[in-house]
Amino acid sequence: MPQIKLVLSDMDGTLLPFGAHEVSARTMAGIAALREAGIAFGPSSGRERSDLIRYFHGDELSVATGIMGNGKLVYLDGELVYRRPLPRDQVEALAQAVSEHPGVMLNLYRPLDEHGHGEAGFISLGISEREKGLFPYETDINLVDALPDGDITTCAVIIAPEVADVDEVHEAVSAACPRLDFPFPAPAVFDVLERGWSKVSALPILLDHLGIDANQIAYLGDSQNDLTMMAAIPHSFCMGNGSAEAKAAARWVVDSCEDDGAAQVMEMLAAHDGRLDQTR
């Protein structure tokens, strides 16, 4: 087997247990061990870089390289090398559709500058002040009345399932926005992607900049939005808590996110200089 040069990992349900606010100390140690072994690490996430940093205990190196915004942002060594904003007219149609359903919120990352930097945090629209309590966030929801100026790269539809029917909302936003896709990264959350675009669409861009091929990557994931990456990357691992689809698509199934399954893979790779034939 080839030597792994890069570990790409999904976040929610893979590195980060649902409801957790930081990845585990063992995960951070695993990432450090990869670096010491000359193996790069990066997130493959629907989140943006400005948001991801806090989950890695403020360590910017952990998010310096990767595929973010579900393939709409690619970073290499801290530099933005690719950006693909969402079609503005479709996001406007989405905002309108969301506003017509009580208990449904559109959450947006603040627009990035030309270098891919931006203020951490979100803005939200589609709900009233009195609906804020339906959404279990520790910080206040920053409500706005309209979409911000500038390119919108990453957003998500978030549903209060005790108020709105998830399948009904998915059907409504799909009908209103025929050029967008809405995969489920977590219960009652839809990511927002340009139709036909996903994390894997950005993979050739990152590979080209790194000068490696897909056979030199280990991919860690757990859910629907990881399936295309698992299909494209031969050495894929699904967490034990993953969906049935993800387990079927991955080459290996490991321990759950809560049991540091991802960190265990990192430790094995680091201990054997990325040689998978020695680790499995």
Report the count of strand segments: 14
The side-by-side strand order for the widest beta sheet comes to: 2-1-12-13-14
What is the straight-line distance between the termini? 11 Å
Which CATH class of the largest domain is shown? Alpha Beta
CATH architecture title of the largest domain: 3-Layer(aba) Sandwich
Taken from the alpha-carbon principal axes, the silhouette is globular
- Main β-sheet: number of strands, strand sense, barrel status? 5 strands, parallel
* Element string (H = helix, E = strand): EHEHEEEHEEEHEEEHEHEHEH
Characterization of the model:
It contains 8 helices and 14 strands. With 280 residues, it is of the alpha/beta class. Helix 7 (244-249) links the parallel strand 13 (235-238) and strand 14 (252-253). Helix 1 (25-36) packs parallel to helix 8. The longest helix has 12 residues, at 25-36. It is globular. The model has no long low-confidence stretch (mean pLDDT 92).
Topology:
Blueprint: E1 6-9, H1 25-36, E2 40-43, H2 49-55, E3 66-68, E4 73-76, E5 79-83, H3 88-99, E6 104-109, E7 122-125, E8 155-159, H4 166-176, E9 180-181, E10 189-191, E11 193-194, H5 199-210, E12 217-221, H6 227-232, E13 235-238, H7 244-249, E14 252-253, H8 261-271
Parallel strand pairs: 1-2, 1-12, 12-13, 13-14
Antiparallel strand pairs: 3-4, 4-5, 6-7, 6-8, 8-10, 9-11
Helix pairs in contact: 1-8, 3-4
